[in-house]
Amino acid sequence: MSQTGQAGLLWVTVIDLLSQQKFEEALQTAQDVQEKSQEIGIKATEASAATCRAVAEHCQRNSQVLEVLRQLGATWGETALLIVGSAGEASGPWAVAAQNLAQAGSSDVQRLSTELGLCWTETMEPRTASHLTSEVPLQEGELRRIAETGGPLRAALAVKELGRREEAIQSAAAAVKAFRDQGNSEGEATALLCKSGAHLGADNMAALQAANHALKNFRELGHIIGQAAALHAVAKAQLAKRNPDDALNRAAESLRHGACGHNKHLWR
């Protein structure tokens, strides 16, 4: 079983124990897995266990949060985001969950979420609970404003959405260089993803090269969300190059890496 699969299984196990009000058993299970994962260096299960511990400790004080999480069908990755992030512009059940879990702060969850990229977005803006709700696409006027006033990465994403390919490629290349000069590997990999998307459909080999470069960077960082996004970009480039078998393999790998349950939202 993959690391993310094991992390998901632990989450299901702990939630089941909490639903039976077996708080001590849930806490002990999560603590044992966290300590073992830290010892052998498996970050995904360590992060899942830290999240489970924070939820179990909070449920002892406030049982309402468990019911909210179960109604939402929240994964451990989504729950980690609710713990370390803010409600943002979210409303409804996700906002309620974020408000409840704001008091379950955990330095371990914060640290591991950052290392694994759980709060990462393709605009390099921190993910909030609003990313877990339905997203309303930006209108053309807002995209034009971002293209004119945003930094290189956001501008590249905006002009790509507007269909201005050459501008998107140039802006993405500028963003890659800027992040590289700063020594920001996460930013460089993110900009490479944008560059891949800008090339896709016109120069599919360039799209594949940029996606593979992004994947290499994200792997070196241990950034599982970025890896999932990069693998998806590789799959799209392989499909565009008419390599369906390679595309399917990469798509399946992307799904395994994204098993902590994040959706892609580019603009919030």
Automatic annotation (TrEMBL):
<dbReference type="InterPro" id="IPR011990">
    <property type="entry name" value="TPR-like_helical_dom_sf"/>
</dbReference>
<keyword id="KW-0687">Ribonucleoprotein</keyword>
<keyword id="KW-0689">Ribosomal protein</keyword>
<protein>
    <submittedName>
        <fullName>60S ribosomal protein L35</fullName>
    </submittedName>
</protein>
<dbReference type="GO" id="GO:0005840">
    <property type="term" value="C:ribosome"/>
</dbReference>
